[in-house]
Structure formats: C-alpha cells, structure tokens
Design brief:
Elements lengths: L6 H8 L13 H14 L2 E10 L2 E13 L2 E14 L5 E4 L3 E8 L7 E10 L2 E6 L3 E15 L2 E3 L2 E3 L1 E18 L2 E21 L4 E21 L8 H6 L3 E8 L2 E9 L2 E9 L1 E9 L2 E17 L7 E15 L7 E14 L1 H7 L10 E13 L6 H5 L6 E15 L2 E12 L11 E11 L1 H11 L4 H14 L1 E2 L5 E8 L5 E3 L2 E2 L2
Antiparallel strand pairs: 1-2, 2-3, 3-4, 3-5, 4-7, 5-6, 6-8, 6-9, 7-8, 8-11, 9-10, 11-12, 12-13, 13-14, 13-15, 14-17, 15-16, 16-18, 17-18, 18-19, 19-20, 20-21, 21-22, 22-23, 23-24, 24-26, 25-26, 26-27, 27-28
Helix pairs in contact: 1-2
Length: 502
C-alpha cells in the first residue's frame, strides 16, 4: 500500500496563489527549496537548472519524477519563474500547459503508458510567510489535463479523456518544525470529465461524462520531515503521519453510452449532494461516504422493458479499522445504510404485473462497532508474505442496529458479542463468540403468502420455512410479528429464546 501522490507537488506548482495580507519575507530560492523538499517527502524528485537575475528566479528544464517499483510518473514543466514582490511574497509563473506521462510496469500484467497534457488558464500564484511557515494561496479559471491516447504492451488504444476544474480557489499551508504540518482548503465551482474510446476490432465504443458542482475541501495533516515514501504505511504512522480530510459536493450528474455488437444503451444518473471523508492517525483508518437524492436510469436494447430506473433518498458507508500492528485492540466499525430505494413500475411489472406486492421504498441498515487488532503489519508485504496464522484478532462486536425493509416486511435487530481468541474452543481454532442477538420480523408471513399467490414460492416450501422459524422465533406484539433472542454462551451453548439448540 503506497500513499505517495504525484499530484501533491503539482498542486503546489500548478495551483494559483493570492498574497496574504501583511506577511514576513520569503525569498524565491526558499520557495523553490520548499517545493523540492515537500515533493521529496512524497517520493518525488523536482529538478531544474536554476538562475537568478535580481528579484527573478528562473528554473529551466524543470521536471517532476515519481517512481515506484511498478510505475513511473514524469512531468516536464519547461520553465518555472519565481518573482519576489515588493510586499515580501513570491509569485509563481507556470506554462499554460506541459506534458505528463504515466508508465505502469507491474511485475505481472500488461505494461501501460498514458501520455497526457496538464493545462491551466488564469492561474495566479503567490507564496507568503517564511521558509518554515509558508502559505500558498491560489486561484485559476481552469485547471485540468487531457489524455491523448494510451498504449498497452506497445499497442495503441484509441482512448481520449479531458478533465477540468473550473473556477478554482483555495490555500495550502506548510509549517516545518519537528514535524511537517500541512493544512489546505479549496473550492471548485464545477468539475468536468469526458472519456471516450473506440474499439474497431470489436466494433464497439463507449463514452462517459461526469459533472460535479460546488466542491469544497478541507484537510490537515502531519508528516515526518524525513518520511520514507518507499516505506510502508505503518512506518510513516509510527513516525507521526496523520491525515484528516473532508470533501463535500453539490449536484452531480453522469452518463455512459455504450455500443457493442450485442447491443447498445445508456446509463444516466446523479445525486443532489454528498461528501467523502478520510482520517488516518494513530494506526487507525476511518473512511466515509454520504450521498443524498440519488437517481439512475438504464436503457438498453437488451432490456425487456423500456427503462430500468431507481431513486434513493440517501445512502452512507463508513469503515473504521486499524492499519498497523498494535499491542491492544482498537476501535473498528462498519456502517452501510440505504434509505428510500425505489424502482420504477416497469421493473416491478416484470415479476408482479398485478401489483400484489407493496411498492414501498426499501431500507437497509448494518451498523457494527467493536474492538480488534492486527498481529502483523498488514501494509508491509514482506511481513504478510509468510504468515501461517490468522493475521488479526477480534475482541468484541456490537451490533448497534440491523434493518431490512422491503415489500411490506421488515427485519430489525441488535446485539453484542465478545470473542475468545485462545483457539481452544469448539470452533476449530476460530474466535469463539459469546453474546446475544435480538431479532424481530414484522410482516414476514404476509410477504410469504403474497409470494405464494404470485407463484414465486411453492406452498410446501413456505410451510417448511415456517416450521423452521418456529424453532428460533416466538410471536411478538402485533398480528404478524416474530421475535427471537439467539444467545451463545462461553461454554459453547446456543440458545433460542431460552431453549437450548446446541
């Protein structure tokens, strides 16, 4: 797992920067040295021929190179000009476009070369502060890149892509002490991406478009001054590395058009707004996605209906887990949530043309938390290569909530378990659970009756399933409600509503 990113140094070089009020003097040479040092901490080499005339520092033949064992990225800026201004700040001037190449050479798999052109318009760049505390304020009418084709194992593939961020602004702060502190904020009025490809031999093609409005980002982080970009993530976290980032966005839309010998079609969708978040600190990783007002429509010559359409009120996903070996268990968590998922009537009519089933929007929730730890450094390939035992241990798991509601029926539940990792239990060396799971099913019998009426379930199968439910569940409150309390004891017993099953 590698966290280096060539875009980091390009952001410093290709972002526009505004002067920040009154500020201490910083020289052009200090700006150049800081850009090189920050790039180096990400595993990048930024080089060029330096010459100075008065207040103007010129870097000729400037290049950026980032290498990993299976990929190389190279950008040729040409000429970079750093001008010291009377107010003690430094202006950065970059070319309106420059070439950039990605060459992927994995040990297994195909060699891929992707040439592109990075471009900008209306770029303004000012650096203020001091050599140890620098602020890069920026704005640009447009920042982007264009992919001008690609080759796979030497064979040219007719692929093109254009990426652009419109009306960009923000700032980037870098402070050097015992650690390097990073802080940034930014806004993008609109993000655009167009991708297309032709496949003459297969007589096919595809085209895709993405558009996102009102993007706002904030991030902060700490990095060791001598971070080893070729090392594993655990080493950098032990050295104090930390990241906390949030990206929010407004309306988004996308479309895919595909044409193949066996059919063609279109996918269109989008959302009203959403967000992404990531936190990486203290050997823990926390990642979250939220989306609101999503919609999707698929049309295809292969579909038996005019269109498949779905809407969703909201969705969320969150994952929390340790990413390094720890002496004691740390927090883990998983949340998956879908609210108000609805399908169009054309889809329902495929299997329920007489509307026997309720068309209520579906809901899904899985909310888990607990404690666990890794016994090995999972981000270090060498440490993971020869392991013969379980790589980690789970200490506890809390089921904060589960819910599935669809077609007039709902299953809900919660519970909590602890785990014995001694390997001496009856589970063949697996962690041995102890705890209770509480479940409630509402509308289940009614749903089964409707499925029988529709001919989707045989009556004898439903009878057998109801008999099996009788072993695990008892009547709850209401006409069509079942509840179940499943308990697993430390000595290996399994109980359902107090009755021993094992």
């Amino acid at each position: 797992m590698r966290h280096s990113n060539s875009a980091s140094a390009i952001a410093l070089l290709a972002s526009g920067f505004f002067a920040s009020g009154a500020s201490a003097d910083i020289t052009a040479m200090e700006v150049w040295e800081n850009i090189q040092a920050l790039g180096k901490s990400y595993g990048e080499q930024i080089t060029g021929t330096v010459s100075q005339s008065g207040d103007v520092l010129t870097i000729s033949d400037a290049t950026l190179t980032h290498e990993t064992p299976d990929a190389t990225a190279t950008g040729s800026f040409g000429q970079i000009i750093l001008t010291e201004l009377p107010n003690g700040t430094v202006e950065i001037t970059l070319p309106t476009e420059f070439p950039f190449t990605m060459a992927m050479t994995p040990e297994t798999g195909e060699k891929i070369d992707v040439p592109m052109v990075v471009n900008q318009s209306g770029l303004k760049a000012i650096v203020s502060g001091t050599a140890d505390d620098s602020v890069y304020d920026y704005s640009a009418d447009q920042l982007g890149f264009a992919i001008i084709g690609m080759t796979v194992e030497g064979e040219e593939i007719p692929v093109n892509a254009n990426f652009a961020m419109m009306a960009v602004s923000g700032n980037y702060e870098v402070s050097n002490g015992e650690m390097r502190a990073l802080k940034s904020s930014g806004k993008v009025d609109k993000l655009l991406l167009d991708v297309g490809a032709e496949f003459p031999e297969e007589n096919g093609s595809f085209a895709a478009k993405f558009e996102i409005e009102d993007m706002v980002s904030k991030s902060s982080g700490m990095m060791p001054l001598e971070a080893n970009p070729q090392g594993n993530l655990a080493e950098d976290l032990a050295g104090g590395m930390a990241v906390d980032a949030l990206l929010t966005y407004g309306a988004s839309n996308y479309s895919f058009d595909f044409d193949a010998p066996d059919g063609k079609g279109t996918v269109k969708g989008g959302a009203e707004n959403g967000s992404f978040s990531v936190t990486l600190a203290d050997a823990s990783f926390d990642y979250g996605i939220k989306s609101f007002g999503s919609h999707l429509t698929l049309t295809s010559t292969q579909l038996p209906i005019p269109a498949l359409a779905a809407t969703m009120e909201s969705s969320a996903f969150n994952l929390k887990m340790p990413v390094a070996k720890t002496d004691a268990p740390t927090d883990i968590g998983l949340v998956t949530q879908i609210n108000g998922l609805a399908l169009n009537e054309d889809v329902w009519a495929l299997f329920d043309p007489t509307a026997i089933l309720p068309r209520d929007p579906a809901t899904l929730l899985v909310d888990l938390s607990g404690k666990a730890r890794w016994l090995f450094e999972i981000t270090n390939p060498e440490a993971m290569a020869d392991i013969t035992t379980a790589p980690g241990e789970i200490e506890s798991l809390d089921i904060n909530g589960i819910e599935l509601s669809v077609a007039g029926a709902s299953l809900t539940g919660d519970g909590a378990f602890t785990f014995d990792n001694s390997g001496t239990g009856e589970m063949g060396g697996m962690p041995k659970p102890a705890g209770t799971l509480n479940l409630q099913l509402n509308g289940g019998n009614g749903l089964m009756d409707k499925l029988v009426e529709m001919g989707l379930l045989p009556q004898e199968q439903v009878m057998g399933f109801r008999m099996m439910l009788g072993l695990f569940a008892r009547p709850g409150e209401g006409d069509d409600a079942l509840v179940s309390e499943i308990t697993m004891t430390e000595d290996g017993q399994v109980l359902a509503n107090g009755q021993r099953l094992r």
